[in-house]
């Protein structure tokens, strides 16, 4: 591999803005790079459905030997402030100038993939068929991956390069995430002249919130009320009040049960006060859990150790595109690629971590040559 080339590639990539919903220019750059490397492109038309700045991109590098096909994935969008990024390399660590994010989440994953392909081609390494999946809109709810026709990915096994911390992290579990939004409708009245004729939506909502169990319910489940709004003036009994909440759990059924419990509380309290509610829920991700004894996890673990790293089995409180792939029948693992302090202006990544990750990915590919596909 060529570390200097990978570093330069990464710094060029982060210099092209691709904030969520504005990924188009970056996609053009990425498509040219990989087509110039001789990969076949299958681009869908999902942007007409999602409203994102680009489509899902699936590139294929045909195998030159027997083995189980494998896909790698990284997302192309970033959070704000993600425009005008100027990367700085100092003593082996890349940061931004301090006014923007760096965009290592997830352009480090993309740079790793590009270097992986170039190394395979230059060193004529044997490999099964490899697919490289690039999705927009990950940061705003896994939007691109959720719109992808999974039949366009022929490999059953996959690696998402989108987890923080030193190389060696294996996300073995990730939660189902369901959001809930409710609007309470009471009855307005003058707060000073005839408050008894009103039904305060704020009071109703306060009672609802007081009955919701919040915080960490157990080691795999969290509940949070994150937004409350209501009222129009101090002299008016509030007619409207809204609440936005979320439930996360590694156990999908537990997540459903907690959402049902909150909905029951809303029903009961609004009925008690003579108010009404309109409540909606949206499932943003589906949870998964892998065991350390699963063969594909074993392949990743061995590759990490072969590159002189320690495997760490992580239970994540957040979702990634891996959730979407797994929900559609793939067996896909999100691994750490070395970035830290993501979504902040202090975001950084050591070049050595990217280099190590390329080595781990090359090793995984090599081990897939003799891997028995149990799909």
UniProtKB/TrEMBL annotation:
Residues annotated as the enzyme's active site: 138 (proton acceptor)
Domain Peptidase M20 dimerisation, residue spans: 177-269
Keyword terms: Hydrolase, Metal-binding, Metalloprotease, Protease, Zinc
Taxonomic superkingdom: Bacteria
Binding-site positions, Zn(2+) 1: 105, 162
Cofactor remark from the record: Binds 2 divalent metal cations per subunit.
Names of required cofactors: Zn(2+); a divalent metal cation
Coiled coil start-end: none
Entries under Pfam families matching the protein: M20_dimer, Peptidase_M20
Annotated GO MF terms: aminopeptidase activity; metal ion binding; metallopeptidase activity
Annotated GO biological process: proteolysis
Protein name: Peptidase M20 dimerisation domain-containing protein
